[in-house]
Design a protein that fits this description.
single chain, alpha/beta, 5 domains, nine-stranded mixed sheet, six-stranded mixed sheet
Length: 748
C-alpha cells in the first residue's frame, strides 16, 4: 500500500449570497457544507460563547533547544485519568530525542467537579509541567472547546512545534518508523497525515515487518500483544512471601486470558451517592459481589444485613458490585434498583467467573476514586447469609462455618453458626463508642521545651518542634510580610456588622477571582450585614500573573499579598498570616467566612444562617472532620517522624467555614506556641484546640460532592469544586432568573 500526503484541505470560505447573514458555507471541491450560526447558538450556546481561559497554562511544555525540531504529542485527557497519564508518561509519552526530533507530550484537560482529581492534576502539573487546563467542564460536547482552545494555545505558546500529533490517553503504545517502510503496513485502522508525518492508527504489520522503527506507528488496544518474556526478563513478575516464590508470566496470561489483561475499567452505573453522608461519622462499607440476575438476593440483603444504618457510631452502607448480563430483563431490574437505592456499581464487562477478577480490580480503583472516606471495607457476596458482630472476647464461642475477617477491632463473622454457648450479646455491631470529643487543651508539663501536648479528652497530640524544624524549617521561621496590605477592605460605616469573605487564591487564578467578583464575592449589603471579599495570595514566579494581580489590587482594593511563594505547604502560612492580619487590620469584622476561589458561596444563605443559629458568635461553623486518619502517602502525606499519631484533632474542612470575631484573639495567640503544620486545615484544628474553641457541624457546608441541581445550591452555604461557568449559571438562575422558590433579586 502506498500513501501520499493529503493535499491541503484547509477550507476556504466562499461568499454565500444565498444563505444570508449568520451562516458560513465551505466547499472541499466535492461537497458543500453550510453552517448556520443561529442553529448552533440555539442548540449549543455555551460552545459558541466560550472564551478560552487557562487555569494551568503549560508554559514550559514547548521550551527547549531551538536547533532541534519539535514533535508535540497533544493528548486529550480527563482529570480522572491519572493512571492513564502515568502509564503514558512511563511509555510512549515520555519526553525524548528520536531521529533528530525532540518529542514532548502535553495533556489537554478540562475541569472536573471532583476536588480529589483536580488536586492530583495540580500535583502532576507541578511535577511534570506537561498539563494545560482550561476552565470549561469535561464533557463530550466540550471536546470541541478543547480543540478550539488547543489551536489558540499552540499559536500563542508553542509556535515552535514543527509537527503535532493529536490523540487521547486511550492510545496504548507509540512506536516510530521511517515513512519508507509504510508500504509494508496493512492498515486495519485509520491513516492520518500530519504534515509529512504519517500516523497509522490501529495498524497490523505487513509480511516484511518494520526493520527500523523510527518515525510514528501507533497500535491501539485491540491489537496490543504482550512481549515474549523468556526467563525472568521483561514480561514476568516474581513475588515472594518468605516461604514460597511465585512467578507470573505475562505472555501466558495474555495467551490464556487476554480479555482480563487489556480491560480498562468503565462504569455504566457509577454509584456516586454510595459514600456520601455526614463526614463526621466513620464509614463501614459493605462491598457485595452480585450478578444482575440475583435480584431476590439483593432484596433480601437490603431488608436484613445490608440495610444502611448507624451502628455503634459507624455509618454502615452497602454497595453491590455487578457486571453486565445479556438478559435485558435483569439489566432493566438492576437499573430500577439503582434508581431506587443508589447502591449499585455496574461495569461494562460480562458477569462471569474469570471476570470476578476484573470486579476486584475495578472495585479497588473505584474506592480510590469515589469512596476514599470509607474507614473500613467488608468484601463479600450475596451468598453471605448473615453478618453478625461480636466483641473479640466472645469469639471462643463461635463455630465458624464461613470466614472470620478482622477489621481493626471489629470482627466480622460470615456465614457463621452459633457455638454451644450461643451469642448471648451478638445481635448488633459492637464498636466502642467514641468519647466526648469536645476539645479542651491541657498543658503539658514534663515534656520540656521543644514540644507541645494537647488533648481533646479522647486523644492526646504531641507536636515536637525539633521534628517540624527539621522537615519544614521555612514554615517555622517565616515572619509575615505584606506586599499588598488590603488596607481598604474592612473600612466602612461602623454601624453595620461586617461579614468578611476571606478567599484563598493563587496569582494565576485571575479568571476565578473575576468570576467570584461578578457573582458571590461582590461587595453588597445583605440582611443588615455589609459583605466584603478579600483575596489571600502568595507570590508566583510568573511576572505576568503578578502584573495582573497588581492591576486587580489597584482596581478593587481587595487583595492581600504576602511575600512567601505559593505552594501547598505554604497554605498554612496563609492561615497564620491571615489571623494576624485580621487582628491588626480588620478587628471590626463580626464574622469571617474562610474558603477557596474554586467554589460557589451563597452569602444570602450565610447571613440567614447566622441570624437563625443560636449563639452563632460562640462557635466555629463548618463541615467538621472528626479525628481524620493521617495519610502517609499522596498529596496530603505527613511523615511518621513529623507526626507519629494516627489521627488528627477535629478541624473544619478547609473548603469553607465560618468563625466569629471573638475567636480571632485566641487563635492568633495560639500561633505563638503551636508549630506550623504543613496542612492548613489540620493546622487550624490544632490552633482551635489550643485556643479551647468549640465547633458546630452543618452539612450545608458542602465541601464534598453534591447533586448538581440548581435548587440544591439554593439550600447550600457553599459548594466546593464548581467550574467557573457553572458558578455564573447558578448565580444567575438563583438571583437573576429566580428559578427556585424563595429566591429573590439581590441588592446591587
Amino acid at each position: 500500500m502506498r500513501l501520499k500526503p493529503r493535499q491541503n484541505l484547509q477550507a476556504s470560505p466562499s461568499p454565500s449570497p444565498g444563505p444570508g447573514p449568520g451562516s458560513v458555507e465551505l466547499s472541499d471541491g466535492t461537497c458543500t457544507f453550510r453552517l448556520n450560526y443561529a442553529a448552533y447558538q440555539a442548540e449549543f450556546p455555551q460552545l459558541q460563547s466560550y472564551r478560552c481561559r487557562e487555569l494551568i497554562p503549560g508554559d514550559g511544555v514547548c521550551s527547549g533547544p531551538l536547533g532541534q525540531p519539535l514533535l508535540l504529542l497533544a493528548v486529550k485527557s480527563h482529570p480522572a485519568s491519572t493512571a492513564r497519564r502515568a502509564t503514558a508518561r512511563r511509555t510512549w509519552a515520555r519526553p525524548r530525542l528520536l531521529g533528530g526530533y525532540r518529542v514532548c507530550p502535553v495533556f489537554l484537560v478540562g475541569v472536573s467537579p471532583d476536588p480529589w482529581h483536580m488536586g492530583l492534576l495540580e500535583e502532576e502539573s507541578q511535577e511534570f509541567g506537561d498539563v494545560v487546563l482550561w476552565d470549561f467542564a469535561e464533557s463530550h460536547p466540550n471536546l470541541s472547546l478543547k480543540e478550539l482552545c488547543f489551536l489558540r494555545w499552540v499559536g500563542a505558546r508553542c509556535g515552535q512545534a514543527d509537527f503535532i500529533f493529536k490523540g487521547s490517553t486511550g492510545v496504548e503504545m507509540i512506536r516510530w518508523s521511517r515513512p519508507a517502510f509504510l508500504k509494508k503496513v496493512f492498515v486495519v485502522g485509520t491513516v492520518v497525515v500530519v504534515g509529512m508525518v504519517v500516523v497509522v492508527v490501529g495498524a497490523g504489520l505487513g509480511s516484511g515487518g518494520f526493520g527500523l522503527l523510527w518515525t510514528l506507528y501507533i497500535k491501539l488496544r485491540q491489537n496490543l500483544q504482550a512481549s515474549p518474556s523468556p526467563g525472568h526478563g521483561p514480561g514476568s513478575v516474581e513475588l515472594s512471601d518468605g516461604t514460597c516464590t511465585f512467578r507470573l508470566n505475562y505472555t501466558a496470561f495474555q495467551a490464556e486470558f487476554p480479555q482480563l489483561q487489556r480491560y480498562r475499567c468503565r462504569e455504566l452505573i457509577p454509584g456516586d451517592g454510595v459514600c456520601s453522608g455526614s463526614p463526621g461519622q466513620p464509614l463501614l462499607l459493605l462491598a457485595v459481589k452480585s450478578h444482575p440476575a440475583s435480584t431476590a438476593r439483593r432484596a433480601t440483603a437490603r431488608r436484613t444485613w445490608a440495610r444502611p444504618r448507624l451502628l455503634g457510631g459507624y455509618r454502615v452502607h452497602p454497595v453491590f458490585l455487578v457486571g453486565v448480563s445479556p438478559d435485558p430483563r435483569h439489566m432493566g431490574l438492576l437499573e430500577e434498583e439503582s434508581q431506587e437505592f443508589g447502591d449499585v456499581v455496574l461495569w461494562d464487562f460480562a458477569d462471569s467467573h474469570p471476570n470476578l477478577s476484573l470486579k476486584e480490580l475495578c472495585f479497588l480503583r473505584w474506592v480510590g476514586a469515589r469512596c476514599r472516606q470509607a474507614d473500613f471495607i467488608f468484601k463479600g457476596s450475596t451468598g453471605v447469609e448473615m453478618i453478625r458482630w461480636s466483641r473479640p472476647a466472645f469469639l471462643k464461642k463461635v463455630f465458624v462455618v464461613g470466614t472470620v475477617v478482622v477489621v481493626g477491632m471489629v470482627v466480622v463473622v460470615v456465614g457463621a453458626g452459633l457455638g454451644s454457648g450461643g451469642f448471648g450479646l451478638l445481635w448488633t455491631l459492637y464498636i466502642k463508642p467514641r468519647q466526648n470529643l469536645q476539645a479542651s487543651p491541657s498543658p503539658s508539663p514534663g515534656h520540656g521545651p521543644g514540644s507541645v501536648e494537647l488533648s481533646d479528652g479522647t486523644c492526646t497530640f504531641r507536636l515536637n518542634y525539633t521534628a517540624f524544624q527539621a522537615e519544614f524549617p521555612q514554615l517555622q521561621s517565616y515572619r509575615c510580610r505584606e506586599l499588598m496590605t488590603g488596607d481598604g477592605v474592612c473600612s466602612g460605616p461602623p454601624g453595620q456588622p461586617l461579614l468578611l469573605l476571606a478567599v484563598k487564591s493563587h496569582p494565576a487564578s485571575t479568571a476565578r477571582r473575576a468570576t467570584a467578583r461578578r457573582t458571590w464575592a461582590r461587595p453588597r449589603l445583605l440582611g443588615g450585614y455589609r459583605v466584603h471579599p478579600v483575596f489571600l495570595v502568595g507570590v508566583s514566579p510568573d511576572p505576568r500573573h503578578m502584573g495582573l494581580l497588581e492591576e486587580e489590587s489597584q482596581e478593587f482594593g481587595d487583595v492581600v499579598l504576602w511575600d512567601f511563594a505559593e505552594s501547598h505547604p505554604n497554605l498554612s502560612l496563609k492561615e497564620l498570616c491571615f489571623l494576624r492580619w485580621v487582628g491588626a487590620r480588620c478587628g471590626q469584622a463580626d464574622f469571617i467566612f474562610k474558603g477557596d476561589d474554586d467554589e460557589f458561596v451563597n452569602p444570602p444563605a450565610l447571613v440567614t444562617y447566622l441570624s437563625q443559629t443560636p449563639n452563632a458568635s460562640q462557635v466555629i461553623h463548618g463541615n467538621i472532620q472528626r479525628h481524620s486518619v493521617v495519610m502517609r502517602a499522596g498529596k496530603y502525606r505527613v511523615s511518621s517522624t513529623l507526626f507519629p499519631q494516627g489521627k488528627y484533632p477535629f478541624f473544619p474542612s478547609g473548603g469553607g467555614f465560618l468563625m466569629p470575631r471573638a475567636s480571632i484573639p485566641a487563635l492568633a495567640a495560639a500561633t505563638e506556641r503551636i508549630p506550623v503544620f504543613p496542612l492548613d486545615d489540620v493546622y487550624f484544628g490544632f490552633l482551635a484546640l489550643a485556643a479551647g474553641l468549640r465547633y458546630r457541624h452543618d452539612d450545608r457546608f458542602r465541601v464534598f460532592s453534591m447533586q448538581d441541581e440548581l435548587c440544591q445550591y439554593a439550600e447550600s452555604l457553599l459548594v466546593h469544586g464548581v467550574s467557573l461557568d457553572r458558578v455564573e449559571e447558578v448565580w444567575s438562575g438563583l438571583y437573576k432568573e429566580q428559578r427556585c422558590n424563595g429566591m429573590g433579586p439581590l441588592p446591587s
